[in-house]
Specification:
This protein is an alpha+beta fold and 656 residues long. It has three domains: 132 residues, no CATH class; 366 residues, Rossmann fold (3-Layer(aba) Sandwich); 100 residues, Immunoglobulins (Immunoglobulin-like, Sandwich). Helix content is 25%, strand content 26%. The strands form nine sheets. Strands 10, 11, 12, 13, 15, 16, 17 and 20 form an eight-stranded mixed sheet that branches. Helix 7 runs parallel beside helix 9, helix 9 runs parallel beside helix 13 and helix 10 packs parallel to helix 11. It is elongated, with a radius of gyration of 28 Å.
């Protein structure tokens, strides 16, 4: 009797479980997957994927506690909040907002039960990469994987004929990799070198043919030496691998050296290699690397996150960026695509913001944003959209001279229906062309004109024929590395998502000190005084914007030299020692320079920069040429760091 009762109870439990699963079955996911072109038959069906063909897809789970997360994101970027910039670790984010562990295990079991092999999981339990035959994918998701004629491109694409409805007790957010309707496009342009509008575009660059190097952007938009991005790491989104020999060739031809370790990381099993001999083009990948490193040549690392544009969508790349160890505080993307549903990436962007990461996105190279153009994700509200300008510098490798809006720079009103973010409302109210209800872009800008030097196949490097907002986005990411270096040196956290602070600066009294306000030129929208839809707030002015974003040191330092007087014979060498002493909580690197030594005298410091917190010593070597005029000279030593400048002097007596 007891055994029969036990059997009865187990049977009831099993039936209830079946009912619960059936009750959850065939419900659409939380994001849309069906392409409008498929549903409307604008893209005609021409066949089906082979049932035995292997597919690699990504099962994405939704975040939990969304209302609490929204509140946290507001408080993290509110200077009056106790939570201001108290960013979460990956583990903390996962515990508070990531999918429950049991739900994640349920999805794993579902995949295996449907003949799908688990390829990779994730620290935040948001994505599960799986693979299997088309037949098994169709059975698991209740779809038919058709081949369709692309309506605007000479190719076919695969896509599901309906929304996925898996038999799962756990509702999914998205399934990545179900279509290749929109293959990501790099945001750079190449013009024929004989085009009249290309020749002579850059006349003051320090790379071959006077084209611009990445280091020229550092000279134009930063202009200092103390900040190099030390201690910071930067991540690049790329849809193909790269050949690092191209980076080596670039630096050799530019007469420079790269000292930042570069890591190539496959996020979905795709190869990280891209060889010209195999027909692969790594132009975008190489220029992203050299632009980021040109601005921040002293970073601790640069990570290239590589994904496969043809098989798995951006879920694997963005999630890898959100779960890296350590995290990259600055991220950059120079690729654009057209998702079936623009909300699909929001969970990753929310995690970036919660963890203190900032993604810069190239705004595009087709001018004014229009329906059907490659805009996404530049109009999302949780990233910094970077537009384009045409820059002139005062000299080769010299400072900023003037800037106009680049005619092809992307910008305008969101084409994906993204609501205007709270931090943009006041700005939009004072912008006659801006939307008051939808996201406006770009936020900031930088040089994108056909003026850059690019090496992408090791041998035939080209000058002045490449441009695009692809050059501006990684440059801004490198600039943020400088800002975050100073913030950390000042004992502050890194900045995280910078748009709330950027828009406050734009509306403040020091706007024209912190930004180059571009007021001429057009991308379909005219550049105007203040914020506009061609260049946003404009480009960075260097240390002034860094100080506005990161703050200056709360303390100070002194500098001294001993001996204060040195006698040196013509053709000889003298020595002194420079000492810096910090106080009041000063915490920054201090750079050293000399002036007043005159002809025939060379001064060097070892090291030339005293590392944070700033207390230390540097050897000062004074070399006197045999032809130097005898007599007394006063050398001024200038020490600069954390917004503070101090000087001391050393007198030298030159004898025969």
């Amino acid at each position: 009797m007891i055994r029969r009762l036990s059997t009865f109870v187990l049977t009831v439990v099993a039936l209830v479980s079946v009912v619960n699963v059936v009750g959850q079955a065939q419900q659409p996911l939380m994001t849309r997957h069906t392409r409008d072109e498929v549903a409307s038959r604008v893209a005609p069906l021409v066949g089906h994927l082979s049932a035995t063909q292997n597919m690699r897809i990504v099962l994405v789970l939704p975040l939990r506690n969304q209302q609490e997360l929204d509140t946290l994101l507001r408080d993290l970027y509110d200077p009056s909040s106790a939570a201001y910039r108290k960013f979460l670790t990956v583990e903390q984010f996962t515990e508070k907002f990531g999918p429950a562990r049991e739900d994640y295990e349920t999805v794993k079991s579902f995949a295996r039960a449907n003949g799908l092999q688990v390829r990779a999981g994730s620290r935040n339990r948001m994505i599960l990469q799986v693979s299997g035959s088309v037949a098994n994918v169709e059975k698991a998701l209740h779809v038919s994987m058709g081949l369709y004629q692309h309506p605007t491109e000479s190719r076919t694409f695969f896509a599901p004929d309906r929304e996925p409805t898996p038999d799962l007790s756990v509702r999914l957010w998205h399934v990545g990799g179900l279509d290749n309707y929109s293959i990501p496009k790099p945001m750079f342009e190449r013009r024929n070198g004989n085009d009249a509008d290309v020749i002579g575009e850059a006349t003051t660059g320090s790379c071959p043919s006077k084209s611009f190097c990445g280091s020229d952007m550092r000279a134009a938009y930063y202009g200092g030496t103390a900040l190099t991005g030390a201690g910071q790491s930067l991540g690049l989104l790329e849809y193909f691998g790269t050949d690092l020999d191209d980076v080596t060739t670039y630096y050799r031809n530019a007469g420079q050296t790269n000292n930042v370790p570069i890591t190539l990381l496959s996020t979905d099993g795709v190869s990280t290699s891209c060889l010209a001999s195999a027909g692969c083009d790594d132009t975008e990948q190489t220029l992203d690397i050299t632009q980021a490193l040109g601005m921040a040549p002293g970073m601790s690392s640069l990570v290239v996150y590589v994904g496969d544009a043809n098989t798995v969508d951006d879920a694997a790349i963005f999630n890898a960026m959100a779960t890296a160890n350590p995290l990259n505080a600055q991220l950059s993307s120079s690729w654009s695509w057209r998702p079936a549903d623009p909300t699909v990436d929001e969970p990753y962007f929310q995690e970036f913001a919660a963890q203190g990461q900032n993604l810069f996105q190239a705004s595009g190279d087709s001018g004014k944003w229009t329906a059907g153009a490659f805009v996404w994700p530049a109009d999302d509200g949780l990233l910094v959209s970077v537009g384009g300008t045409s820059l002139k510098t005062a000299s080769a490798g010299g400072p900023w001279a003037s800037e106009t809006a680049w005619s092809s720079g992307g910008g305008g009103i969101s084409t994906n229906g993204i609501a205007i973010p709270s931090w943009q409302v006041t700005t939009a109210a004072g912008c006659s062309k801006c939307s008051q209800t939808l996201r406006n872009g770009p936020d900031v800008s930088a040089n994108s004109d056909y003026s850059f030097y690019v090496c992408a196949d090791q041998t035939s490097c080209t000058a002045n024929s490449y441009g695009g907002t692809s050059f501006a986005a990684p440059m801004w990411a490198g600039f943020l590395a400088l800002v975050n270096q100073q913030a950390v040196a000042n004992g502050q956290p890194t900045l995280g998502f910078i748009n709330p602070a950027v828009y406050d600066i734009g509306l403040g009294a020091d706007y024209n000190t912190d930004f180059h306000d571009t007021t001429s030129g057009s991308n379909g929208f005219s550049a105007t005084v203040g914020f506009d839809l061609a260049t946003g707030w404009g480009s960075p002015t260097g240390q002034a914007l860094i100080d506005a974003l990161a703050g200056t040191s709360t303390g100070t330092f002194t500098v001294s030299a001993a001996p204060k007087a040195v006698k040196i014979a013509q053709g000889g060498t003298g020595l002194s020692k420079v000492t810096t002493t910090v106080s009041g909580g000063f915490n920054s690197a201090i750079s050293l320079s000399a002036s007043g030594q005159g002809t025939g005298v060379k001064v060097t410091f070892n090291p030339s920069t005293i590392a944070a917190p700033g207390s230390g010593h540097a050897g000062m070597q004074i070399r006197v040429a045999p032809t130097a005029t005898t007599g007394l000279r006063k050398i001024t030593i200038t020490a600069t760091g954390g917004g503070v400048t101090q000087t001391t002097t050393v007198n030298i007596g030159i004898t025969k």
